[in-house]
Amino acid sequence: MGLGLQGSGMASARYAAQQGAIVRVTDMKSPEVLAPSVQALAGLPIEFILGEHRDEDFRWAEIVIRNPGVPWTSPYIRLAQEHGARIEMEIALFLLACPGRVIGITGTRGKTTTASLIYEILRASGAPTLIGGNVAGVETLSLLPQITPETLVVLELSSWQLEGLAPHKISPAVAVMTNIYPDHLNTYTGMEDYAEAKANIFRHQKPDDLAIFNYDNPWTRRFGEEAPGQTWFTSLEKGGSFARHTAQVEPFRFTETPMAGRHNLENILLATTAARLLGVSDDVIAEAVRRFHGVPYRLEEVRELNGVRYINDSASTSPVAGQVALEAFDAPIVLVAGGNTKHLPLEQWPERIVQRCRDVILLAGSGTTELLPAIQQEVHNQGASDPVRGIFTDYQQALAAAVQLARPGDVLLFSPGFTSFGMFLNEFDRGDKFVAYVRAL
Predict the structure, then answer these.
(1) Cβ contact 319:398 at 8 Å
(2) Annotated binding residue 107
(3) 246 marked ligand binding residue
(4) β-pairing, 23-27 with 46-50?
(5) 340-394 tens-digit pLDDT
(6) Which residue, 28, 61, 104, 427, is the most exposed by fewest CB within 10 angstroms?
(7) Is 113 annotated as a binding residue?
(8) DSSP run (H or E) holding 145
């Protein structure tokens, strides 16, 4: 249920067919949109029902593998359960079959950067290492043939993926949790429900398993006290990392990095602590950190042109992500933001926009309708001038306006702070379009 374009649905369909199952794939997106995914599965005995979901398919199925974006409350999932079907997710099938040691990383912000850096450090150490999970374009189940008991498998895990582990009471052998902030509250009943989904990353660990938590975030600090395995905390405020129930802090040594922002130092501290606990030498870790420039779509520097730095932060789908992006730069900012709402609190984002941005271009959407009055209120509160220069329904026109406003020494920051659906397929599509536009200038 849910073929998608990013790999998870394709991997599930391929894996099920290879195991000898009779497979139907159903997705509400049109056959035209899903053509690349269908093509990737050519030659396998798979039936596709696209552009709709049919009750008959969910009555027919013995196992439904749901895509991470499909909520438990879906009437089709309920129908399948009423007819005796097992509800599974790709990541649970993977963990049940994986012979390697799994290092799982989750959190609201920073999980992709932290997972990618852990992967790069482990690879640099010479250990056989693979990366998967919530990584665009990676079919995690398709990694299984390459994995031996000696393989280290780094998995970025979303809250939705982690829900799939709960019925099996399984967690990765190594769990890393970056932070918890309000997110996805349009699909969860509240913060407790959302955070509890994340907590599956450590809930079912064994006493000799390893868990690492960010002490500076209230949610992850609390979870660190509840973890059943060997637990470590990291803290920029305390200047390093420390085992639970000890006062001795191992100092943070790996601060030489090309990445901008305090939040990236948090990510580096988590990743390097995990690597040290996995036995990697400090020399290997330091060199990997110095070489690591971050990941696409997350404060990614696309180019510098005429003295303007163009930054692609299209993975910013929540207000707190938009706020963190603004705090990463000291230069004057021309901001392109806006999109559709997930009904999350705006936090200090409007305040930071008025403080930090000389010019703001907004993309039309339900989130933008929430943001604009909050910016206007902050303009009034701060006695500042209004930085908003227009709301656009065409992203090319929006980017053209932003480019016109940018001056030498500026940062042109594409950090939407909301989801993308409507104007773009997803946050990766909008990031790719931004990069293509900037490279063509």
Answers:
(1) no
(2) yes
(3) no
(4) parallel
(5) 998 889 989 999 999 999 999 999 999 999 999 999 999 999 999 999 999 999 9
(6) 28
(7) yes
(8) none
